[in-house]
Amino acid sequence: MSVLQHLPLGRFIEAASRGSRQTKQTVQVSFIVMLLMAAMALFSAKVNAEVPNAVPPEGSYSGIHVEQPIEFPHDTHADINEINCMYCHTYARRSKVAGIPPTSKCMGCHSVIATDKPRIQKLTEYWENKQPPLWNKVHDVPDFVHFTHEKHIKRFVIDNEDLEVENVSEVCAFCHGEVKKMTVADKVKPLTMGFCQRCHQANDGPSDCWHCHK
Amino acid sequence: MSFSKIKRRDFLKIMGWGGVGATLVGCDLPTTVTLEEGKEKVVSYLMPEEYVIPGVGVWYASTCQQCPSGCGIHGRVREGRVLKLEGNPASSVNKGRLCQMGQASLQAHYNPDRIAKPKIRRGSSLVDATWEEAYGLIAEKTANISGSKFAWMTGSVSGHQSVLLQAYLESIGSGNHFVHETINNAVWAKVCQDMLGDSNPRIRLDKAQSMLSFGADFLGTWGSPLHFSTEYAKFRTSPRGTLIQVEPNMTLTGANADLWVASRPGSEGALALGIANQLVSKQGLSMSGLPNSVQSLIRSYTLDETVTATGVDADRIADIAATLKRRSPSVVLAGASAQGHEHGYQCVAAAMVLNVILGNIGKTIESNGEFAYASMAPVSGNTHSLVSFSQAAADKRFDVVFFSGVNPVYTAPKSLGLKESLANIPFKVVFSHFNDETTAMADVVLPLASTEEDWGTHVAPYQAGVGEISIQQPLMEPLSTETRGFGDIVLTLLKKRKETAYEGFADYYAYLRNAFSTIPAEHKNGASDEQFWTDVLAAGLIDVGVKKTSLKVKGVEFDMPKEMGNSSAMILAPSARLGFWDGRHANLPWLQEAPDQISKVVWDSWAELHPSTAKKIGVKEGDMVKIASASGEINVKVYIYKGVHPDVIAVPLGQGHDAGFSRYAKDRGVNSLSILDPKVDKMTGELALYSTNVKVTKAAKTDDVLVRFGGSETQVGRKLVSTIPADVYERTEGGDHVA
């Protein structure tokens, strides 16, 4: 299972069809694939458990759906086109905040890609007006909590020799859920102190008050 | 109980409580703040600078403007917001340190009471206006004005702001520039000028082995406090220098002294002469360099005479003289409480005479050199200008007056009648960050950009042998689109006066860029103009050197009045603190919240009284007293403290602002400057701040309590800090105590 789910879906089907010359078998394999997908959807929390050397935090939350100025499709970028989370959220490994990518970064691709799509036209309008879109914040912790992306990426990605950096989204999913299956992000993890604390205990994270409250 | 007996409603109740119970467990209660999805905006950069990472601070160099010392600062900027200030280690003034006033500069910047729009007087009230209207009105009122009818009152000023300000005065043909600072060294500067030929000599605390300070609070308000704090640290190390402080009420410097002597205000000069007498008669030093009249003056201050004039013990006076002789080289300083008398000049001169007798000139008091560009050199403020301005206003000499960096309606004693005489000035323009006592009298109020939003160049008034120009650069975008930088305003005013020389500069930034391109190549290290400018901004300063000068000791004759007025009357000491300064920082909550260095009082005014005096008046801590001078009265709570002369009641500066100033300073304490008599030092014209006789009586107690940090003044027998008498220490441990 673990090997399969790390293979991007499109390639897996292609490999399966190439491996069998009989159509019937292919259909059967496809059926199995569909079952697997259903299983993956059902046990998405279990999917996340596959980050090596890490115990993922438990808990879920059903946040309100926050409308954004542009309905940014995370799925198109991170899932279908397999763009690494850290390509756009480039500050995550360098700073306490992951950062919304600068508009110039969006336009780096979208001055040529998909320029006929209404969402891209809206983006181009922002760009030409020299105004970045005002995104609505979905994931937030109170001001008295000092959360840093940099430390977490270091622990679970950079210092984690067994993790391929291509799979960083599994680490992001600890706190953000499977964003690559979403369009605009929704909050699906509680991000309460208990949620943080249990993960810190399970992964030998610091437990002093001042690590987060300073 | 069977299932059938549970009603639907009960079932829901149980489930409801169960649900709440589950949520309350541990730390999983989601607070409202954690549930704020979609409440805040998050804005990305349109196109980030290469070095900008959101969440990671970038430090920029600038210059502090909280007091006239001109310390270099570094400001941490994140996501376009300045978050923290520290000292710039490259600055020779503060060497990387920053005081609490500097730290609190952020609160002036982000202050909710900042003026956000220009205001113009319509009848009895000030109403919002546009900059065009304000500039138009100023142009109209100054169109045909004669130079003598125009005046500009500022705080201490230097650098290119000073250049533009002078250019504006010249464009009108006016020489009326009044530079006012309540906390100043004006008398010291005059004495140094007269006796040493240099108004601003370099003080080598680091070279001195002992120091006698007559009220010079160099750790708090004297000269350049941060600079002298680092110099003081050197003074106190290997070998440890001895500090003797003489003052009417204890300052931060006094609290650090080895020997603290309480002086009746006005007697400092007599004490200095008495010590001089001891040095000559008992310690074998020569006073041959002094004029005959001063020599005979010193001879007249015998030990008995000095004890009578000062009330200080004979042994103590002899001890101080012996210590200064033994621990040579020494240095003798004089500050606010020594200069604040009608004979203030003489008191400071007597202190300087000690330096001459002790041979300190050229050893611990050196020439400091002169800043190379006279037009940018610092112009330091004083109170003489406040007195003469008040007189000129009363005489109806001015038609148009500008005020910037000053709040004279607050700092002027009521007895000067300034507030009333301002009515004689038909058109008053106030440049200010905040509404205050002076903007309330204005006809036009021009809202200034904060220190953190503005461009500028500054030359610190006290620099140790270097000539640094310190850069002030914006640390962030202005918070309000309707405030303007001081330089920008003056530049616009100059353009409105059709001064063609300034038409090429789009703004003050362009003016400064141009000014820096004209700096002689020898200071540029071969860098291009662009590179030089970038280097200066990154460093925060550039040292353009000083013209070498030398000290020339000159014999100055002076006398010392034997009669010190009514010696039984109480004297009011309006002491200054590094905090509120002259009252300008009372609107910064951090400084209100920071306990006073001496009394630990927060958010309030207080009067320091000696226990014996308090007993006489019949008050205890927290009781209200009425302090009445010939010029007015204030009611204030009492703090009983041994570090104050029994004849003195000390009320620190800063509080007692009018309601319009700030939500944080509103209805808080009293302004001790307000009841001072209009006495001045006869030689310099400086306000005699420490010479107002007052009557102190018990007043009706109010519900208001005196809030202090820290509880008891005693150790309640717990030996928290062990002490040992000096003679026991010498006998058992050996050692070298102050005597």
Which SSEs are present, and which pair or pack?
The complex is a heterodimer of chains A (214) and B (739).
Chain A: H1 2-6, H2 9-19, H3 23-42, H4 44-48, H5 74-80, H6 85-88, H7 103-110, H8 118-128, E1 134-136, H9 149-158, H10 168-176, H11 193-202, H12 209-212
Helix pairs in contact in A: 7-8
Chain B: H1 8-24, E1 41-43, E2 58-63, E3 72-78, E4 81-87, H2 100-103, H3 105-109, E5 119-122, E6 125-128, H4 131-142, E7 150-154, H5 159-172, E8 177-179, H6 186-196, E9 202-203, E10 210-214, H7 225-235, E11 242-247, H8 252-255, E12 259-262, H9 268-281, H10 292-300, H11 303-310, H12 314-326, E13 330-334, H13 336-339, H14 344-357, E14 365-366, E15 370-371, H15 384-394, E16 400-404, H16 408-411, H17 418-421, E17 427-432, E18 444-447, E19 456-458, E20 468-472, H18 486-496, H19 508-517, H20 529-539, E21 541-543, E22 546-547, E23 570-573, H21 589-593, E24 607-609, H22 611-617, E25 624-629, E26 632-640, E27 648-650, E28 692-698, H23 726-733
Parallel strand pairs in B: 7-8, 7-16, 10-11, 10-13, 11-12, 16-17, 17-18, 23-27, 24-26
Antiparallel strand pairs in B: 2-3, 3-4, 5-6, 5-18, 9-14, 15-22, 19-20, 20-21, 23-28, 25-26, 25-28
Helix pairs in contact in B: 5-18, 6-14, 9-10, 9-11, 9-12, 9-14
Structural commentary:
- The complex is a heterodimer of chains A (214) and B (739).
- Among the domains of chain A are: 2-42; 74-100 and 135-212, no CATH class.
- Helices cover 49% and strands 1% of the residues of chain A.
- Chain A contains twelve helices and one strand; from the N terminus they run H-H-H-H-H-H-H-H-E-H-H-H-H.
- Chain A is globular.
- The N and C termini of chain A lie far apart (42 Å).
- Among the domains of chain B are: 119-182 and 373-456 and 477-507, 3-Layer(aba) Sandwich (Rossmann fold), CATH 3.40.50.740; 186-369, Dimethylsulfoxide Reductase, domain 2 (3-Layer(aba) Sandwich), CATH 3.40.228; 570-698, Barwin-like endoglucanases (Beta Barrel), CATH 2.40.40.
- Chain B has 23 helices and 28 strands.
- Chain B has a seven-stranded mixed beta sheet with strand order 6-5-18-17-16-7-8, with helices on both faces.
- The longest helix of chain B has 17 residues, at 8-24.
- Chain B starts with 7 loop residues before the first helix and ends in a 6-residue tail after the last helix.
- Chains A and B meet through strand 1 and helix 11 of A and strand 1 of B.
- Strand 1 (134-136) of chain A pairs antiparallel with strand 1 of chain B.
